[in-house]
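Limitations
The structure tokens in this dataset are predictions for the assembled complex, not deposited experimental models. Users should treat interface geometry with appropriate caution, especially where small molecules or nucleic acid strands are included. An illustrative entry is reproduced here so readers can see what is and is not provided.
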Amino acid sequence: MIIEERIGDVIVEIINVERASVKEAEELKAKLIDAIDDGYKKIIIDLSECDFVDSSFLGVLVNSLKKVVKLEGDLKLVGFRPAVRAMFELTRLFRVFESFSNLQEAVKSYTH
Amino acid sequence: MTSKTNNINKELTVKSTTNNLAIIREFVENIARESGFSKEIVSKISLAVDEACTNVIKHAYKFSPDREIKILTQFNDSKLTIRITDSGDKFDPNLIPEPNLKEYHKQKKVGGLGMFLMKKLMDEVQYLTLSGNQNQVVLVKYLA
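Predicted assembly:
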């Protein structure tokens, strides 16, 4: 399940499941399409509840980042657990995303 | 779901729904553990099988939940072989270029990430076309 929060012009997608795979990837993709259509381009994905992400989910993160960067926005990540960090390291995708240890820091990075 | 076991071979057949991925992972993790792989390698094998089955559900069966995925495992001579068979759309791995990670990160291109992961996590990955319009991905891990 994905919970959405809007903080000013920042949209936060909280991935509230232990395993983020193909089902959550489709859900996130649909939510981000709507958010971008609504004019949001400062996006935060909160992964602090996740113990696992698969390549489908990583694919949606990369595609969405690509989309918002074109709109001069960004997609930042929050709350890597060890297994999720390992997956980003294995695919070397941690270089692609800006990441933060907590939500406050990530929101602050958009407002300063 | 059907399952049968003998000394060296085990088999699991499940319907092609993402809800069954947990059953597949548990099946494969038990076999990898029984074969003597470390906890870390068991996770890698499980992840590779998860990626392969997700590919079947997504690409071969296009999320149709009533098709079958068959998983056959064999362990002998320190070699664990996992065969994942489907009867969905034919998959040609040659059409999926190996991601050039440098370009991948520069251009933020997606595609082929699941295959890249499988190759990274396992010692051998092979795609076969069997008779009767069946596709099979063969994953191999050696017990060091």
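Some entries come with short summary sentences. For this one: The domain at 8-142 of chain B is CATH 3.30.565.10 (Heat Shock Protein 90).
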